[in-house]
Amino acid sequence: MPFNLQDFKKVPIAEATAVPSHSGQCHVTINKWWAVTEDDCILYFGISRQCNEHQKVIEHMLTHEGYPGVKAVFIPVVFDKE
């Protein structure tokens, strides 16, 4: 069964890379290639980050149905604030 982009949680890159302004814990992901939509959002499938340290892994993932207009983008730091 192919994925549909509607099945994914989208977070704008600007929001995901902004340093949290509140105290508390967050998960930091560094130096990864992310699946990024045409409107510059990173993707999560449930709680699973759609990223990898290897560009080719993300590019291969994007060859499957359900990822129209999605590209691999290197992002140095992402803050998971939830």
Task: Catalogue the unreliable spans.
Answer: none
- Radius of gyration, in Å, reads 13 Å
Judging from the principal axes of the Cα atoms, what is the shape? globular
Percentage of helical residues?
10-25%
Total number of helices: 2
Largest sheet: 3 strands, antiparallel
Quickly count the domains.
1
Percentage beta strand: 35-45%
Strands of the widest sheet, in order across it, are: 1-3-4
| Series of secondary-structure elements, N-terminal to C-terminal | EHEEEEHE
Q: How confident overall, as mean pLDDT?
A: 90
Number of strands: 6
Distance linking N and C termini? 29 Å
Instruction: Name the structural class.
Output: mainly beta
Description:
By secondary structure, the chain is mainly beta. The protein has one domain. 13% of the residues lie in helices and 40% in strands. The protein is built from two helices and six strands, in the order E-H-E-E-E-E-H-E. It has helices spanning 13-16, 55-61, and strands at residues 9-12, 27-36, 41-45, 48-49, 51-52, 71-80. The strands form two sheets. The chain has a three-stranded antiparallel beta sheet. A three-stranded antiparallel beta sheet has the order 5-2-6. It is globular, with a radius of gyration of 13 Å. The model has no long low-confidence stretch (mean pLDDT 90).
Layout of strands and helices, then pairs:
Elements: E1 9-12, H1 13-16, E2 27-36, E3 41-45, E4 48-49, E5 51-52, H2 55-61, E6 71-80
Antiparallel strand pairs: 1-3, 2-5, 2-6, 3-4
